[in-house]
């Protein structure tokens, strides 16, 4: 790293930072950190320019707004980065429980770099902060990103916090099918990545055999939280998965991935007998929290939870079908009015929209 060695770091301050990594999504990826490509773009940007207006580059860092663009940070084992981007989750020490200022390192475009970003995880790192006023020439292309590996068993690890439902056709489903084959519930000829009737039947048979859920339940064949927990334990007992699957360190971010899907991973078995994936409400830390809005006619198990909640509020009186239909949005609008989350002066498009204020109020009430 000759260019770094030649750089004058006099006047720079040694600090400890909380460091994470991010990437830029591309359409057509096998998987995303958020549920969809558009959600991913909203989280990470389009990958063309940073908030500073500079084109993305190796070494681009996102840092809180109080630090000027053009400042650099030198990490002795990782190289040099330049502050050229911002981010809603990039906060100062003392905010959101952070003990250090948080930095996000941009990796690159595409799925490989998402895996690298997740593998990088969240860690405290010591570096040297050089204010933009003392930076003469900012080094470029000097972060050793290839030091962060691409995990070959990434999907074997991450599938245990991934909610899966019918009509998917992807590597997540293929990974689930691999384990159903190993447990003798699915013929290997159906291991094709398609979440169709044979996979659904095999998974439902497993769930009934393990007394997770009734065969008559509409959630039979959904790869929900209880099924994931039970199957993971079975696979570990049979030696197909390591006991320390979620070892501290490298898989921290993969575990945190669950927060953007349905339920946080837990080593406490959820209560049996209810809908798949719905935890005992006495285990407050395990209650699913709404984190995103839905589009009209979207269907998933999260919306079922929303309908059950609205039903308990005496606002929803129709079938619990998981469809974000007009009856669901009308009930949600009544909820918004009940708690003064919307006014007559607000745009009509916000009526029945599961926005941040509405999600926050629902999550608050469900935790009580």
Care to describe what's here?
Mean pLDDT is 76; it is low at 257-286. The protein starts with a helix and ends with a helix. The protein has a 6-stranded mixed β-barrel. It has 3 domains: 2-147, Barwin-like endoglucanases; 154-278, no CATH class; 289-367, PGBD-like superfamily/PGBD (Muramoyl-pentapeptide Carboxypeptidase, domain 1, Orthogonal Bundle), CATH 1.10.101. The longest helix is centred in the middle third of the chain and has 13 residues, at 197-209. By secondary structure, it is α/β, with parallel strands linked by helices. Helix content is 29%, strand content 11%. It contains 11 helices and 6 strands. It has helices at residues 2-6, 37-44, 111-120, 154-158, 171-182, 197-209, 225-237, 252-256, 301-312, 326-338, 356-367; strands spanning 13-24, 60-62, 72-75, 79-85, 102-109, 123-130.
Mean pLDDT: 76
Briefly note the CATH topology name of the largest domain: Barwin-like endoglucanases
CATH uppermost class of the largest domain: Mainly Beta
Main beta-sheet annotation: 6 strands, mixed, barrel
CATH level-two architecture of the largest domain: Beta Barrel
Count every beta strand, where a strand is a DSSP E run of 2 or more residues.
6
The shape, in one word, is: globular
Helix-strand makeup class: alpha/beta
Summarize, please.
It is built from eleven helices and six strands. A six-stranded mixed barrel has the order 1-5-2-4-3-6. The protein is 29% helix and 11% strand.
């Amino acid at each position: 790293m000759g260019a770094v060695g030649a750089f004058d770091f006099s006047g720079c301050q040694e600090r400890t930072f909380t460091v994470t990594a991010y990437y830029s999504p591309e359409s057509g990826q096998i998987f995303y950190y958020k549920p969809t490509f558009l959600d991913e773009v909203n989280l990470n940007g389009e990958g063309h320019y940073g908030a500073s207006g500079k084109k993305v580059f190796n070494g681009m860092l996102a840092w809180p707004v109080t630090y000027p663009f053009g400042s650099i940070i030198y990490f002795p084992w990782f190289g040099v980065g330049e502050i050229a981007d911002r981010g809603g989750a990039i906060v100062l020490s003392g905010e959101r429980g952070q003990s250090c200022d948080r930095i996000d390192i941009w990796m690159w475009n595409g799925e490989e770099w998402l895996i690298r970003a997740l593998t990088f995880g969240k860690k405290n790192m010591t570096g040297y902060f050089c204010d933009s006023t003392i930076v003469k020439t900012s080094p470029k292309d000097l972060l050793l990103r290839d030091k962060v590996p691409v995990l070959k068993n990434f999907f074997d690890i991450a599938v245990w916090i991934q909610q899966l439902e019918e009509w998917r056709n992807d590597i997540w489903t293929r990974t689930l099918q691999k384990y159903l084959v190993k447990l003798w519930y699915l013929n290997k000829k159906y291991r094709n990545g398609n979440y169709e009737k044979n996979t659904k039947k095999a998974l439902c048979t497993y769930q009934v055999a393990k007394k997770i859920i009734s065969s008559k339940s509409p959630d039979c064949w959904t790869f929900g939280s209880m099924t994931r927990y039970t199957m993971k334990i079975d696979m570990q007992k049979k030696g197909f998965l390591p006991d320390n699957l979620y070892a501290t360190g490298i898989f921290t971010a993969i575990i945190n991935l669950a927060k953007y899907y349905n339920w946080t991973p837990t080593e406490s078995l959820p209560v049996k007998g209810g809908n798949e994936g719905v935890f005992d409400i006495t285990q407050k830390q395990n209650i699913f929290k709404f984190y995103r809005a839905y589009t009209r006619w979207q269907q998933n198990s999260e919306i079922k939870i929303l309908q059950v909640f609205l039903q308990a509020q005496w606002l929803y009186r129709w079938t619990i079908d998981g469809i974000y239909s007009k009856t669901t949005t009308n009930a949600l609008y009544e909820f918004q009015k009940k708690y003064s989350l919307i006014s007559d002066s607000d745009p009509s498009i916000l009526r029945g929209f599961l926005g941040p204020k509405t999600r926050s109020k629902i999550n608050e009430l469900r935790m009580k």
